[in-house]
Specification:
The protein is α/β, with parallel strands linked by helices and 298 residues long. It has ten helices and eight strands.
């Protein structure tokens, strides 16, 4: 098995779920996931945000606000019948999507934003995601959507039964719900339910989230056989490169396997310089150049 950061596009796209997880694990904290909004006008209208993210260092792509029943991606011709599989070829990278396990009984701390059926986690949407060719499903919540940890736990079990790929689960902010974002009990429940990767708020992005707090959770996650991902989902993905560098190094200290950078920036994409800075901070210029310079045709 090769490390993900040593693999070319054809090798990456040939990996099954178990192989991709092992390849990420072997990369020792040097895997980057870029979240991209697909419904607003792209940063460069002629190409997708995902192509830009890949060009500047993203190893994994996560689509936000993607409607599985109306599978459109800005800058991809609507006439293309399988847009997700086409995007995978363009980027040479695994493609995931957010599905949101909305909890309509959750105690909200703010007004709830209603979202379309094709973005809400259900048996129907999970099966459709599988059919569309997604490699990853991330069970999380956008701001004010009312996604609770209880609803995520139930969604993990549903997704595990109906999806062939990797399951990421957790919250990077409150999603409008009055509850702790993450704790040890929640982590263990998510892993028991079948999550492959536990999403944790990145150190420095949410009040009270410290290096020691996240490191303790990462140790539990690894001991239970899962992977950990830190997430910048608080608009700080559009901060200065110095801030991104600091977040990257702090979270590498915790032992996370993947570092996520969100979609708040230029038209649904983190500033490309910040994606590049995250890559350089985590793996240096040599390995960054290998990843960004390698053709998708290899």
């Amino acid at each position: 098995m090769k490390r993900l950061l040593d693999s070319v596009a054809s090798e990456i796209l040939a990996m099954d779920r178990e192989e991709l997880l092992e390849s990420i694990k072997l990369s020792e904290g040097r895997t980057i996931l870029s979240e991209n909004n697909v419904v607003i006008t792209q940063f460069q209208p002629m190409i997708t945000n995902s192509e830009i993210a890949r060009a500047f260092g993203a190893d994994l792509i996560l689509l936000n606000c993607f409607d599985v029943f109306n599978p459109k991606i800005k800058a991809i011709d609507p006439a293309i019948e399988e847009p997700v599989k086409y995007l995978k070829k363009l980027c040479g990278r695994p493609i995931g999507l957010n599905l949101e396990p909305v909890d309509y009984k959750a105690e909200m701390g703010e007004d709830r934003d209603d979202i379309v059926k094709g973005r809400i986690c259900s048996e129907e949407t999970v099966k459709k995601a599988n059919e569309l060719g997604f490699d990853i499903v991330s069970l999380t919540g956008n701001p004010s959507t009312g996604v609770s940890n209880n609803s995520i736990e139930k969604a993990i079990e549903l997704t595990r039964a109906n999806f062939d790929g990797i399951i990421i689960a957790g919250k990077m902010h409150g999603s409008g719900v009055n509850e702790p974002i993450i704790d040890e009990d929640t982590v263990r429940k998510f892993i028991k339910a079948g999550a492959d990767v536990i999403l944790l708020p990145a150190v420095g992005t949410f009040p009270g989230i410290t290096v020691n707090f996240i490191k303790d959770l990462v140790d539990i996650i690894h001991a239970d056989g899962a992977l950990a991902m830190s997430a910048i989902g608080t608009s700080q993905e559009a901060s200065s490169v110095e801030t991104i560098r600091q977040i990257a190094l702090l979270n590498k200290m915790t032992g996370v396997d993947i570092q996520h950078i969100g979609d708040h920036g230029y038209s649904g994409l983190a500033p490309y310089r910040n994606i590049l800075e995250l890559s350089i901070a985590l793996r240096g210029e040599s390995l960054t150049l290998r990843m960004i310079g390698s053709s998708v045709l290899r």
